[in-house]
Design goal:
This protein is mainly α and 148 residues long. It has one domain. It is built from four helices and no strands.
């Protein structure tokens, strides 16, 4: 039963990753080019948008890779030091993504203000909050593992 649940968690992780990969490869350049049309100071902001969003995807994928490693550790019952190191890496990846989205919120605000679309700010806030929850859960798991 435990083997099946670990496999299911891996499948769910890949199901989460595949749409995000396609979104970032196909849709993101189109969105940032649209940002250049909406905001008047567009060239500098366009490149900042590319750097910020593609910069945030790198720690996100690193965190997903660490989650998959964590599932393998759980399946193989590996020592707690490797488990703790992986949980710590997940926490740092989540904090990094949250920080990069906080830095990018002014760009989202400019875009939402010019285009009168408050959903853009809500998207940035949701990404920030989800990563904060992930970092908090990782910290709780790390602290709980230290207790044993």
């Amino acid at each position: 039963m435990k083997r099946n649940s670990t496999f299911l968690l891996k499948v769910v992780s890949f199901v989460i990753v595949i749409p995000i990969v396609s979104l970032f490869i196909l849709l993101l350049p189109w969105v940032i080019s649209g940002l250049a049309e909406v905001i008047p100071v567009s060239n500098h902001i366009k490149y900042l948008g590319f750097i910020g969003l593609y910069g945030a995807i790198i720690p996100f994928y690193f965190g997903i890779y660490q989650i998959i490693k964590l599932f393998n550790y759980m399946k193989n019952k590996v020592s707690s030091e490797l488990y703790l190191e992986t949980v710590k890496n997940i926490k740092y990846a989540s904090i990094t993504v949250s920080f990069l989205y906080v830095l990018g919120m002014p760009l989202l605000f400019l875009m939402a203000d010019k285009d009168d679309a408050p959903g853009i700010l809500l998207f940035g806030l949701i990404v920030f909050l989800v990563n904060c929850v992930s970092a908090i859960l990782s910290a709780v798991f790390e602290r709980r593992r230290h207790a044993f």
